[in-house]
Design a protein that fits this description.
Alpha-Beta Plaits; disordered N terminus; 3-stranded antiparallel beta sheet; binds flavin-adenine dinucleotide; alpha+beta; 15 strands; 19% strand
């Protein structure tokens, strides 16, 4: 903590500095929840991301908020949030849930449903990410399959954790078995907030490209609604039913039963303009993760397990701890799976963070000074190179199909 002279000449500690660079705060809420004086709240910045703010008059200068920060600790020294008994290298599986309906309702191969079905059957509690009535993401607690089902599907925006960490602690204290799912920074934040690894906590984290801005999503959705002159009634960040697992098209459903399919938000996401700044220095873009089990889309499946994918979704499952291994074995009857090679499963977010776009600052200035249609045209279209690559792939597929016949 920094020291500051007080007016009367004696030294008085200043309030802790939680971050000076937005790249060092992932917004996990651990500092807020740990503060014994309730002096911290979360405020949105102009990009719509939540950051902790300390009320100087309430702060008791204990410094706990700084010490509980997993993100900075893991930036300084890798893997401080991983369990001590983790495997040196994860066990790797390609997984499909045996029930096709489950798979179609899930983002990839449905491993999350298999794990949580088992957890619910044993009387446990689940925490995960859902959408609210405005299609913004937040974390909630579930004790039923119906509530858990709302957690299925990837919401490509940062979720608001609210006071979830406190709820998890209360559940753990009362002896409930808790399964917490979220991004790796959320799982790391929770583990550090709990100051240990309670036996009744099981964590599932997702391999994460980065979390997009809720403000960008809100403006995008408004733009789509205004173009239609209709209210959205549901959204699918990645419409797997109509476009297959490998493609990435977002679909918005309107009040008159119509639908818009678009790739604008996806292109803003993959162009990285709308990612949280901390994603550019994320210590969890790595093989080792803080979850007992880490889940992802199995990109590279055709090399890792040829013939296993039917384009309806395959999960990549990284089992990181003995507890993860025991759980995976328990649910394996619900799954078709193959053990695979880590070296063939190394998608970019398992290797390093993406670089921050050089024009990110300009994007955000234009975000507030230009209509969304301008942003969609300038930043939200696929580059010529990507279009060319897609066309080449589809021609190759057609030729291969003809040769087979
Ligand atoms: C922001 C984001 C980035 C992603 N980036 C990648 C990537 O780079 N590579 C890759 O292979 N896969 C990525 N995924 C997809 C992720 O791997 C899948 O959610 C995972 O494979 C789950 O598959 P499932 O079939 O078990 O699905 P589902 O049943 O669909 O699983 C849903 C799970 O995702 C969680 N979840 C959904 N949205 C969020 C959110 N906004 N914040 C926190 N948790 C959320 C839910 O709590 C639940 O645990 C990303 C997902 C998100 C939300």
């Amino acid at each position: 903590m920094m020291m500051k002279e007080s007016g009367a000449g004696q030294k008085k500690e200043s309030v802790p500095v939680l971050y000076t660079d937005r790249r060092t705060c992932c917004g996990c809420t651990a500092c807020l929840e740990a503060c014994p004086a309730g002096a911290i709240s979360m405020k949105r910045d102009r990009e719509g991301f939540l950051y902790p703010v300390i009320r100087e008059d309430s702060c008791i200068r204990c410094g706990l908020c700084e010490r509980v920060c997993a993100f900075k600790a893991d930036q300084r020294e890798k893997h401080t949030s991983c369990k001590a008994d983790r495997f040196e290298e994860p066990l790797v599986y390609a997984v499909r849930h045996r029930d096709l309906d489950v798979r179609m309702a899930s983002r990839s191969g449905g491993i999350f449903t298999a794990l949580t079905d088992e957890w619910l059957a044993a009387g446990g509690v689940i925490y995960g990410c859902v959408l609210d009535e405005h299609f913004q993401a937040y974390h909630m607690r579930a004790e039923s399959a119906a509530d858990r089902d709302r957690m299925r599907g990837s919401k490509y925006i940062q979720s608001d954790l609210g006071d979830i960490f406190r709820n998890v602690r209360e559940d753990l204290k009362s002896g409930r078995e808790v399964l917490f799912s979220g991004t790796s920074c959320q799982v790391a934040g929770l583990r550090r907030f709990l100051n240990g690894n309670p036996e009744n906590l099981f964590c599932v984290d997702i391999v994460c490209h980065g979390v997009p801005s809720p403000a960008a999503w809100k403006k995008y959705l408004q733009w789509q609604e205004e173009k239609r002159g209709l209210k959205a009634v549901s959204v699918d960040f990645r419409n797997k039913r109509d476009f297959g697992w490998k493609d990435h098209v977002e679909s918005i459903y309107f009040s008159d039963g119509s639908r818009t399919d678009s790739t604008v938000f996806k292109n803003l996401f993959y162009g990285h303009w709308i990612l949280r700044p901390s994603c550019f220095s994320c210590p969890y873009k790595d093989v080792m993760h803080p979850g007992d089990i880490t889940i992802a889309d199995y990109w590279g499946i055709d090399k890792a397990a040829p013939g296993f994918s039917d384009n309806k979704g395959v999960s990549l499952v990284l089992v990181n701890t003995p507890e993860g291994d025991a759980m995976f074995r328990k649910v394996s009857d619900a799954l078709d799976f193959r053990e695979t090679d880590l070296a063939l499963s190394m998608q970019p977010p398992l290797q390093a963070p993406f670089p921050e776009p050089a024009d990110r600052y300009r994007f955000w200035n234009e975000f507030y000074s230009k209509p969304f249609g301008y942003l969609a045209r300038k930043y939200g279209t696929e580059s010529a190179a990507v279009r060319l690559k897609k066309k080449y792939r589809s021609i190759r597929k057609k030729i291969a199909g003809r040769l087979k016949r």
